[in-house]
Amino acid sequence: IRAYAGKPAEDVQNLFWDCKQLIAPGSKVELKESRLISAPVSFGFHPNIIVLPGEHIHSLSQKELRHILLHELTHIRHGDLLTNYIVCALQALFWFNPFVWLAMGQLRRDREAYCDWTVINRFSSEGERIEYGSTILRFAAIQTNIHTSLVNEFCAGKSLLKYRLEQIVAFRRENRLCRVICSFCAISRRSSRHIW
After folding, report:
1. Please, which residues have CB within 8 angstroms of residue 64's CB and are 6 or more apart in sequence?
2. FRET pair for 141, CA 20 to 30 Å: which of 8, 147, 153, 178?
3. What is the pTM of this model?
4. Residue 76's Cα: distance from chain center in Å?
C-alpha cells in the first residue's frame, strides 16, 4: 500500500497536523492516500503511516475526516500498531491453540472499543458522538479491504462493528472525581508495596 500511496491535499494535511498536535504530538507519523483501499488503515513502526482511501476522501466532510484522523492517531498514541505485530507473532507461534485465537479476538475488540472511548471522550456534545458512529457505519458499508492482522482498520468485521456501535451508544463521559479517586488508589497501592 505504501508504495502506491501519495500525499493527500493540503487541507487534509493541515487537518491531520492539527489532530496530530492534539493526540500524538511527539510521534513520527506520515499521512498518505491510496485508491487501493476503501477504508482508512494505519500500520508501520517509526514512522507510523495512516493511509486514507483515495476514492472516498474527497466526499468526506471535515468532521468525518477529523473523526478518522483522531481514531487512527489514538491507535498510534496507545501503541496499538506495535501490539498488533506482537499479537501476530504470538498467533503464528501458537496457531494450533484455540484459546490464543479467542484471546487475540477479544484483545482486538477491546482495543478498538478503548480507542473509540478515548476519541469520543474528547467530544463536547452527544451529537458529535452520534456523528462519529455514523462515520464508522459509512465506511463499514463501502469497505472492500482485504482483512489482515498487520494493520489497524477503521472498521473491520460485522461483530466488531456491532460491539463498537453498542459501546458508543452506551458511552458515559469519564467523571473527573472518579479519575482522581482511581489515581489516588493506584498511588497509595504503589506506596504501600514499598512500605512492606
Report:
1. 131, 135, 138
2. 8
3. 0.76
4. 7
